[in-house]
Amino acid sequence: MTDGRPTAAGSAPLWERDAELATVAAALDALCAGRNAPGALLVFRGKAGLGKTALLAETRRMAERRGCSVWSARGAETLRSVPFHVLRQLLQPALLSLPPEDIRDHLGDWHDIAGPALGITEPPGDNADPHYVRDGLVSAVRRIARRTWPLVLLLDDAHWADPETLRWLAAFAERLDDVPVLVVVARRPDRAGGVGARHLDAVAAAAGRPVNDLSALTPGATAGLTRATLGRHADDAFCREVWAVTDGNPYETVELLAKVHDSELEPVESHAGELRALNRAARGGGLVDRLKGLGLEATRFAWAAAILGTGITVDMVARLATMDDDLARACADVLCAARILTRTGPATGTEADTGELEFVHPLIATDVYQSIPSGVCTAMHGVAAQLVNELGRGAAEAARHLLKVHPDEDEELVEQLRQAAREHLAVGAPDAARRCLERALREPPLPEVHAHVLYELGCATLLTNPAVSIDQLRSALGMPGLDGDDRVDAVVRLSQALLHNDQLEEAVRTVEAEAARHAAGPVRLRLQAFQFMWEGIHGETVAPARSRRLAELASTCTGRDNAERALLILRAFDAMTHGESADAVVDLCDRALVNGRLAPGLGWTDPEWGMELLMMLGSAYAYADRLDRAESLFSEARRVYTSAGWRGVHLSLANAFLGLAYRRQGRLPDAEATLREAVRLAERVGRRLPLYWSATCGLVDTLLARGRVEEAWSVAEQYGFAPPYPSTIVLPDIRSVRGRLLLAVGRTAEGIGELEAAEKTAASRGGHNPVLAPWSVDLARALAGTDPARAAQLAADARKQAERFGTDTAIGEALRCAAALETGQRAVRLAARAVAYLEASPCQYEHAAARVEYGIAAGSAAELARGLELARLCGADGLADRARKALAGARGPR
Length: 894
Known about the structure:
The structure is a single chain. By secondary structure, this protein is mainly α. 64% of the residues lie in helices and 4% in strands. Strand 3 (151-156), helix 7 (163-173) and strand 4 (181-187) form a beta-alpha-beta unit. It holds the Pfam family AAA_16.
């Protein structure tokens, strides 16, 4: 700026920043207006040296003058591999100053999941789901912001922040509307790439205002700064050359003018030609030469400081650079005087000096680090890792140094990296764990350990990237080292990864081949159970012979161990999908439990069997009209996964299947809310995967039941609910729901085609459950006007299947269909029978629909009023509207 510009050279980066400072002032005024003020996000973007850090420093001063609490953090190029590093910088100092009970109070319910990620509590032990950790951190910081109002968070050099912090920042930025906090982010426009760039773009989009792009100084501002620094006698030609040499970069301008001042160069045109040589000494090779000119010891001290990157103290640098304390303090003084380092904490000048140091500018830190000879850099990282271990800071903190060490078949280093990976997984940082394990493989590990490292690498990405897990687990199984239970566990994990990556046939072949390697016994039985499980959820090609084999095997099971219990569940699910006796299905399910509860080792988070088996158990109960048991199982799944922090595949499916139970019960608003959450969670994992279909299909089915056809179609379009379908079975039946949707929007021919495709699938599988896959009743209704004979046959077949299955819901639904194809008193009698069965059913939406249809057929106002009441209770708005219209013209008492 030229008018009202700073008069001190130290304020140089704030020249011509009137607009930016006004934006900050307005945001601070809005924040301080009251605790109910909405949050705000400012993003300042500019190339290196344009004054982003100075702008944040001025923001701090402005905020503190208004009485705000200000917490700050900065990304660092050499620390991007440290998960949550920047977020810990931001929050740790304030939280660790509190007593433990106050920390818990600040974090609230998220203490146990956010605390480990912030480095202030120990992790509970099991691997943490990264999605859940991110959500926990967002909620925890929102809670902290409300308790610490007015709070300002400053993030400098966000382009160098670790990926975990950037994920948190992107999520937090989307939820600022009701949180009284100001977040100010400074970044370069061209440094972040890949995932980091996407997160920073999301942050910018969430700001809700244009990004503030910083520009270089104008020639006039550069001249003003030159004269403010060197004196008013600096002539125009000299000032123009300063601007030309630095391109108006504030940082380079300040550094150049400092060198002019130190060299006592007169700021006149005759000396302007010397400016370029002086400027070269401020950056790159010039800086390196200047550093060397300070002496070997000072150079070694600067190298050690660049290796540490953060937490730079004279004591730590002295140990890393292998110099005595007196020499280290002297080097620190020299480097501070040369404007390479600066002190940020209290320097006592004693032998126990703990004052912290940092580089004057990130550009200097980068140049110094890049100037370290390769061999020296590697060796110093190795020493730094050793120092971290000696200080008891853990393998995770040492890992960033270990990642830089050259491979050398070091057995101890491999174990340290494996331990670091476990620590990263425990706080929800699987990408950091992956980097450690990939580096351990390059060491390489000893032959007997190699397969185990690959196995751990595959498991590290199982929840977040099944495709990557597949490659690693296959490699682990392809080499010696994994034996006994470890090998079987790896095979099971591989099959699960294949399943979640929609490679079901390969999942089946994987466990089938492993089972063939084992003699009869518990291990083989477990593998056979997984083979039957994956075959059982195949959406298209389950042959009747497979069901016969499963029935024969299950007939010998008493439920004495979990392998037998698994086979009983699989048999129950198979019988349910094929429409066998519901009573037999329930008996099989009950026998798989221990005193009505899941057996030890067969719980929702137990790794031996996985969640798929229990989802099949709950589904068998749900479609056999034991909805109370299904709801109990799926509610427990959601509670357990939430408590354990599993916010990916597991929690999405738990919500999807709980939504299914609510939909079957007729609790349509609850079903919709739960299924929307399932879809939201599934989107994090990836579209077109089986879990995504379950959530979307259930949501479309529920919206159709609520009578919101246009919204159901919109959801289907938004989430790709259309062919090609996944290879796994989807509940509710995907073709039946898609066919009903197409009929509802008037695309009758396409709807009939989908339902006929469902009919062919049922024939290939050897039968179907008319409640699980209600294509027959929907197809009969669709064909009633054009092909009444075929419609009647379909309805008759549906009644046979329903009576074979034997539940009130199945029989009642088949009778509803039959009544819809009739007229007169026969329609009334069939509708009355449907009501009688569905009144005894736990499926209240179907009961409500039967009441309304009976009321219409009989012209009974009383029945219509009862149906209207039930429809309201279910949240079935479309059905309620239909009942109201019919009620307006009905005969009989009201």
